[in-house]
Amino acid sequence: TLEEFEVKLVEENDELESNPYQGCKLIIKDDKGREFGTNTPNLIRMVSQFIFDACQEKLSEIEANIIFPNA
C-alpha cells in the first residue's frame, strides 16, 4: 500500500537527503502503452500526498454512510 511504501522510504532514507522520494520514479501508463514518467522527488511527493488525501477522503465518505443495525 501507499502508506507502507512511504514508511519504508522514510525508514531507509539517507539522512543527507531531505526528500525520501529521491531516487524514485513515478510512471503513469494508459491502456495504449503511452507513459508519463518523472524522477522529480518533489513532484512525486505531491502526487503521493494527493492520492493519499483522496483515498482518506473517500474512506471517510464510505464510513459515514455505514449504518449498523441496533444490536
The total count of helices amounts to 2
Tell me the radius of gyration. 17 Å
**Straight-line distance between termini:** 34 Å
Main β-sheet, spatial strand arrangement: 1-2
> What is the strand tally?
2
Output mean pLDDT: 86
Shape: flat
Can I get a quick summary?
The chain has 71 residues and is mainly α.
List keywords for this structure.
mainly alpha; 2 strands; 71 residues; single chain; two-stranded antiparallel ribbon
Notes on the protein architecture:
The chain has 71 residues and is mainly alpha-helical. It is 49% helix and 11% strand. The chain has helices at 2-12, 41-64; strands at residues 26-29, 35-38. It has a two-stranded antiparallel ribbon with strand order 1-2. A hairpin with a 5-residue loop joins β1 (26-29) and β2. The longest helix is centred in the last third of the chain and has 24 residues, at 41-64. The mean pLDDT is 86.
Task: Give the arrangement of secondary structure elements.
Layout: H1 2-12, E1 26-29, E2 35-38, H2 41-64
Antiparallel strand pairs: 1-2
